[in-house]
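@channel sequence for tomorrow's demo:
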Amino acid sequence: MAWPDGVLTRGDCWQGGQVRIRLMPSPVLAIGRCPPFAGACVSLKCGAACRSRGAGAVLRVSTNRASTNGEAERPGSNDLRKVLTRALPSPHWMADSSERCAVVLFELDDWRAWLPEATAVLDATERERVQRQRRTTGREALALAYALHRLLLGIALGCDARAVPLGRDSRGCPRLADGALHTSLSHADGVAAIAVTAAGPIGVDIEAMRRASVMPEIAERVCHPVEALALRGIAAQERAAALLQLWVRKEALLKAAGIGLACEMNSFTAPLGVQPLPSGGCVGMTALHRLVGSDVWEVAVAAPPTTTIISAWLRPDGAAPVASHGRPATALALY
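structure tokens (generated this afternoon):
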């Protein structure tokens, strides 16, 4: 990477931390007091003199600190687990999963410094699924999502991520072989949502709100006739947003039922609250929730009615979780 001219004044960070430093339009790149630990991700915001990127661009560089034996340190899978554990709202946040459902959300780019270590915890099937992605960005995002999923389950179960008995059934739904936990994973546009509980079947889905613009084109596939009637006559923008909400809610329901898209979305309704799971998979009742607190992402979770939903965006620097648009959102509200 060709660095632009500028002055790096100071950058104190910790392992996995993230620091933003504005490069001034003056001609010296001088590192002053900057002792980041191994694997820290330093984000440099360029000024007008940035020659390698446009003004205001964000550059990222993974930094290493020399170890006591003179070799460069780098984060390992155990370090990644420690960073993830520290990022949780509390040390025991993943506990008591028989009464709670934890929904964890990630900006995957925040965790890119640990990509090699994340890839190392995947099993052969997961690596194969990753390699099917045609684009490098898609492969990296999927590897991080799978690894963070395994690591979270390992924290919940108290075991190494590689020892988590995680697989997929014939429909591609994630399943633990021993049935100790129920889990669901959704990833889209550089983010991931992971749901974990011991109480029963669960499903989570996340989509970018900007995708609402294309939803009217597939409205007939998404809406049950009752829902289509209810949406008739409302303003176009509101209708598009409502269609995206329906899509996300129905994805969550189908994942909880364990049938994926084997059931047509327009064959059932998806009101918020307690309702039967769609037919064709798991039998029983579920509670459908919409998670709010972000103006960028639409998130829904279907969980056993007796559980309490807890949720947070996690970042590797251990700072208070924030939503992708920058507004504090330690936990997303439910309605």
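heads up for whoever presents: The two ends are 46 Å apart (CA to CA).
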